[in-house]
Queue: 2 jobs
Job 1
Amino acid sequence: MISQGTREQKILLMGLRRGGKSSIRQVIFHGMQPIETLYLESTTKPTSEKLSSLANFVIEEIPGQVDVTNPEFESSKVFKGASTVIYVIDSQDEYLLSLQNVVQVISQGYKIDRNIHFEILIHKVDGLSEDFRLDTKRDIIQRINDDLVDIGAYDADVTFHMTSIFDQSIVEALSRIIQKLVPELSSLTQLLDMFCMRTGVEKAFVFEASSKIYLATDSSPVDAEIYQVCSDFIDVSADLGGLYGTSANTGNSDGREFSTSRFNNGSVICLTRLIKGCLLVCLCTSETDNKITLVEFNADVFREGMEKIYA
Ligand code: GDP
């Protein structure tokens, strides 16, 4: 029998042309700089990305030209087996057409599988003023929800996210979206809570190393700045690793990776490599040498806990 953990989780990436789908794929999975996406060619063929970590994900981009209302569109084939549909709405453009389209997409997907998570990205919000952002969000949510009630899909599982590739909001949104598909999320959260409590660290994340999507975190709220610092430290550590063939301040003689960095304000950030392409990154706001030893020790205990969960 194949368990949920080994089954490939299909995520569809949909939305009208020029909404930003390929840019999101390129920035997150191929390290493209956001500004370079200006010159991206529009995708005309279905394209997919694989992410193998705590679960196996395949992200399939459906080109914006595909008309879901066309009788030739094989909705049963497209939506069957999908765990999630991510729909990208360009908030800087006239979005009424997108709203009609997303409701059609939800309607078709919902008929095929009521458990599909529909994740709506109100995208490119970097171009909107703070006030206009909130008005746009309210307007889009209201219109979509009204239409879903009209078509009888009021209980579809729909979540909205404000995103931009020019800040961390897109990774944050994708992290929340993908976390819903990690079968062992609650066990990992409990382990992280225990890790933070026993070690006295403020915040801990389990990142997928290549995309920097976080697959789990402890149950305290995520602060955007702390997330940013932890995420940036992955790059710093990788750059130093590339330069010296090892990571910053690596203390282990057994080849395991443990990196730390100390800030002027006394905070310390620590990174440990886990299993399945994951990294544990945590931030301590007050620091003593003993504490770092404890973090390193408990990070090992955390990794062993993870190995047991995924054995
Ligand atoms: P697709 O047809 O949905 O795949 O759209 P593309 O990924 O080709 O993006 C269309 C345009 O939107 C490109 O010029 C991107 O640079 C731009 N774009 C994508 N994401 C953002 C964003 O978050 N903010 C802004 N301002 N522009 C974006």
Job 2
Amino acid sequence: MSARDPIAHVRAETCFVDDLLEPQGTLYAAVFGSPVAHGVVCVLDANAAAAASGVAAVFTARDIPGENQVGSVVADQPLLAADRVRYVGQPLAMVVADTPTRAHQALKNITVTIDKRPAVFDPRQAAENGDLIGLPRTIAMGNVDAAWSQCVTIVSGRVDSGGQEHLYLETQAALAIPRPCDSMHIFSATQSPSSVQRTVARVLACPMHAIEVEVQRVGGAFGGKEDQAATWAALAALAAHRLQRPVKLVLDRHADMQMTGKRHPYTSDYRLGLDADGRFLAFQATYYQNAGAVADLSTAVLERSLFHATNSYAIPNVRVTGICCRTHLPPFTAFRGFGAPQAMVVIEAAIVAAAETLNVPTWTLQQKNLLCGGDIFPFGMRMQGDTPRRSFDAAVSRFHVQSRLADIERRNAASNFVKRGLAVMPVCFGIAFTTTMLNQAGALVHVFVDGSVSVSTAAVEIGQGVATKLRRMAAAALGIAQTRVRIENTSTTRVANMSPTAASTAADLNGAAVRLACGTLLQRLKTVAAGIQGVPAGQVAIRGGRVWIGDAPSSLTWEALVKTAHRKRVDLSAHAFYATPELHYDRQREKGRPFAYHVCGAAVVEARLDALRGTASIESVEIVHDAGRSLDPLVDRGQVEGAVVQGIGWTTLEELMVDPDGRLLTDTLSTYKVPDLDFSPTTIEVVFLDDTADSGAVMASKAVGEPPLMYGIGAYFAIRAAIRAVRDVPAERIRLPLTHARILQMLEGE
Ligand code: LUZ
Ligand code: MOS
């Protein structure tokens, strides 16, 4: 990875898995998915496909030498379905041929007879049937039941939020290359090389050391390749192992949209109680999560929903319950925000309902109830710092919320058809994997005799700029120019047992490990320098690629120092390990400290509604965001802007539709709309909160990947406010996404 990455991207020179130079004799795989949502497989006939021209082999469950299992949290997901299918698109067979076209053509020759069983797509129905994954979980604080009697205002309602297709530009892809001595080299478009390694070893019944998984870069992932890249890599590896030929499997867009999981749809019930001053006294909610057919990461996603049920607010009495419901849809999976957006939209809907009941501006209720430093979350963790309040107040004043609301009211009264609406959306997002054990990282740093430096970590460059940040951190730690530092491909052979690049933590965890490894090297090199210069090691520093004694630069350069150290037989490689301190969580008591810190901020979102045509657009999103001491303001700004647009897409545009048989209807880019430049707000202003002394992460920075997505929730409520300038719409039933079709329905009172 180099600083030239962005340049390569715009020139389309970047190499993704499908662009890698293929070894001679590479074969191509295509996957046959179940045409039925739920049923028992009677006959799977692949004979015609196997005989088709160019086809090397067809594989089914019977051909798997090891375990037919890819479930990472729960062992409930076969690599290839054997006797029962549980969703449309579930892999049943794989064709391998000498060209991708022939592999795809041969799929048409496969026939399957399936004895259909009843299929359920609605999570509430699944819950009624008792078809749950794990037990329902409840996190509680205070005494909700007793608190209702003290409430002056109580609102209740239901919120339904839809799924979301990741639409990473690079589809799921893997290239498996057999190596001598029963080993295999796999290039995978994954966020989690070690998960791919573990899954392939399991499926092939070989030790993990026989499998090297390598990732150069991934063309977008957004959570879709945290758990779900493993299936495609394992299929490619299975074929490569059986045929002893390199095998490439790249899903085309259509197959990717049909076969892979998306953001979890939720349907939730809430109740919020307020005292006479508008303070939140009690909040209760039940979240029915549509998990799809297998567990995947659903229980972890649901846990994060519960941890974010109260978003940025302090509420003394809370009881929230999450129910993971099994349906006959492709397994829903990680998606930027990981369950937090689905929960935050519920508390925001509750606050809007309360504000409309009390006839007060929503932002005043929000502001009155913001978390302060020292407040306790329902899961027992204490809020550190005042960033929810500081960012909210800063956003309200800096972006003139009060005067703009008055102005909007005036303009709305003066216009019959053009209506405006404004919403403030605070976000408070916990940083760390909620699965405590995942909060670990290793780094391996080599200094070569010419002074160039090679850094290997678990971080996968997905376009989020983690390589840029790591490079900067390594260079700063060693006191040398960034041009001397190379961030290597992510490989399971260089760093073992890697956690996924996920949960916004890649720069935090891997950066901390890199700094530790660099610190070890620096100490060794300083000792050598001190010996050369004849001064105590404490007086030596390395800055600007040269050795300094106290405040004075010496003539000893970084290169000369490294050469000398090598001659003196000093180890110029260092491995370091970092585990986030002080994390713990007790799932029996549902109390603990699951997060290292929180990232907070607030957005002001303004929408413009054309009430005649029933269309709306988001005019502006203005944000005060806490990035700590940013490791790279440009990277962080890009992350915030991209996340906001993705969040607005989820709340107002992107709609997954499934037919009564469980077949995805929106499986092309013509039927599934995602934000483009034209759709994006004209203005996205990002102001970084300064002076955030409470930062917990490396070099006083803060994680940035996921939190800003939830600013996009404000888009829903801004458009809703504009619609309310036309007619009253009840708040008890909120449905996302708020598409143009739904806007029109609301305008017509449906
Ligand atoms: N993945 C995961 C995540 O395994 N655990 C998490 O807590 C998480 N959070 C956000 C995104 N991915
Ligand atoms: Mo993720 S939702 O893979 O951080």
